[in-house]
Amino acid sequence: MAQKRIFILNGHPAENSLNRTLAESYAQAAQEAGHEVRLTHLHNISFDPDFGYGGYSVQKPLEAELEQVLADIEWSQHMVLTTPMWWGGVPAKLKGLFDRALLPGRAFNTRETNWIGMPSPMLTGRTGRVIMTSDTPNFFMRLVYRNAMLRQLRDQILGFVGIKPARFTHFSGASDPKPAKIEQWITQVKGYGTVAA
């Protein structure tokens, strides 16, 4: 099995969470399998999440923590994101990270477009895995919400900048799961980490 460079972003803004446990479980299994791993917890980085200026012509300088996140993505061959679903989307701080860090000239190129006029991605050559936790049952996510958050993360964010394919795992009933269920999820995530999937 080829070794990979893996960047893991725990997108939960709290210091301790199920998402942190899952991110660290993935990292541990990946390291034990011989992969190179960089792990960042959203809680530990400080930045202004507000894009603020409303356009790309005048941009806020990126804080050192955001520069490091970009450097870790650029370094990686595989990116893993763990995130809860809050109010149908990602936490505000995680959305702010995307707003601030995934900018033209670094993540996509507005000067080079495809046949339908979409900017060309600049982070190609990387695969991804999104591990999402929520209380929403899987069937409800598909039938009622039409996998809106999955499509946003996989297609409109990661895919837009070139990180694909981005596989998606959804663990539901995450607010108060039984210990056996948590162990089951950890085992599943460790399996992904072992093979860098």
TrEMBL record:
Q: Which UniProt keywords apply?
A: Oxidoreductase
InterPro entries, sorted: Flavodoxin_fold, Flavoprotein-like_sf, NAD(P)H_dehydrogenase_qn
Which segments does the entry list as coiled coil?
none
Please give one Gene Ontology molecular function term for this protein.
NAD(P)H dehydrogenase (quinone) activity
Q: Which residues form the Flavodoxin-like fold domain?
A: 4-186
Q: Which domain of life is it from?
A: Bacteria
Any one Gene Ontology cellular component term annotated for this protein: cytosol
* SUPFAM superfamilies, per database record: Flavoproteins
Extract the Pfam families matched here.
Flavodoxin_2
Family of this protein: Belongs to the NAD(P)H dehydrogenase (quinone) family.
Q: Which PANTHER family match?
A: NAD P H OXIDOREDUCTASE-RELATED (PTHR10204), NAD(P)H DEHYDROGENASE [QUINONE] 1 ISOFORM 1 (PTHR10204:SF34)
Entry protein name? Flavodoxin family protein
